[in-house]
Amino acid sequence: MELNGQERTLMDRTVGIVGLGIMGGAIARNLVDRGWRVVGFDTDATRRTELAGANVTIAGDVGQVAREAPIIMTSLPNPAAVEDVAQAIAYSGQPPRIVVELSTLTLADKLRFEDILKKAGHIALDCPLSGTGAQAKNRDLVVYASGDSASIARCAELFSDFAKQSADLGAFGNGSRMKFVANHLVAIHNVATAEAMILAERAGLDPKLVVDMVGPGAGGSRMFQMRAPMMVEGVYEPATMKVSTWKKDMAIIAEFADDVGCATPLFTLTQPVYTEAMAMGLGDQDTAAVFEVLKKTIVAPPKSGARNRK
After folding, report:
1. Cβ distance 290 to 190 under 8 Å?
2. Domains of the chain
3. Quick check: bond before 216 cis, omega within 30?
């Protein structure tokens, strides 16, 4: 059946989102605000209810998303969920869809996702995001797009309505490679921020002034600007990135670095800090909670005079 002009315009401004969690939910809200018809699905009933209240059309299953949306984005918590969704789209019997995978997964998982969809005639794009849930709310994300260039170009307007920047990085999988590099730095900067804030605290500086003055200077970073205020307040919920989720991402980065034969000594030194955060029961807290780990574990060395005293 041929679509009329109005129906075609509506179809062109319709996007599906599977996974309405911290990231997917924020993206869905932003797209609705910018005039998109968003067809969403999540296995969590609470999320479905919340997003329905934000004018997202809630689908009954992944198959309905595939029927109604020519472009589908997936933001999912683990490889099993991603594979299940790929299979559901593949078996939906719909004409070719562009399926934009936003999650952080291993390259093997991404390639499996692509293979499932390609066999069914769909086009998969590997497009992980740089940014936290808080940044997603403010459209402060970067899309690391990779795969079919024509399909990435078709998604440019969509990306610009929920992210501040996107780039075509070439072959499928390059998006994930770029994300691994970015997250390698996030892991280090987050722990470095906690260490610096403890140093400032022990030096007797006003922590709020430290945030105000260090953040914009040469020593600042995006992680410092985002996480140092949480450390000052000692409040790590709601989490923009849970420690438990971050541990999964770090394992992926470590595997990637090993595969390409690159030593990452600074990144490796941060891993026990996040592991200890899990052991302290902070898994559902924001990764800024590593501040609590360092407060507990860092012991100031004796002053030089004390070392020399006999």
Report:
1. yes
2. 5-171 (3.40.50.720), 176-297 (1.10.1040.10)
3. no
Which residues face 144 on adjacent strands? 167
CA-angle at 275, arms to 270 and 280, nearest 5°:
125
Model confidence at 10: pLDDT above 60: no
161 residue type, one letter = D
Place of tokens 């299953």: 61
Which residue bears the tokens 């921020």? 193
Query: The whole model's pTM is what?
Result: 0.89
Q: Vertex 136, ends 275 and 244: CA angle to 5°?
A: 15
Distance CA 50, CA 65 (A): 18
Mean model confidence pLDDT for the chain? 93
Q: How far apart, in Å, do the first and last CA atoms of the chain sit?
A: 93
pLDDT, tens digit (0-9, with 9 covering 90-100), for 157-181: 999 999 999 999 999 999 999 999 9
Nearest to 136 by CA among 60, 274, 239, 275: 239
15: phi then psi, degrees, rounded to nearest 5? -135, 145
Query: Which residue reads 């940014």 in tokens?
Result: 131
| One-letter amino acid for residue 151 of the chain | S
- Residues 246, 273: contact at Cβ < 8 Å? no
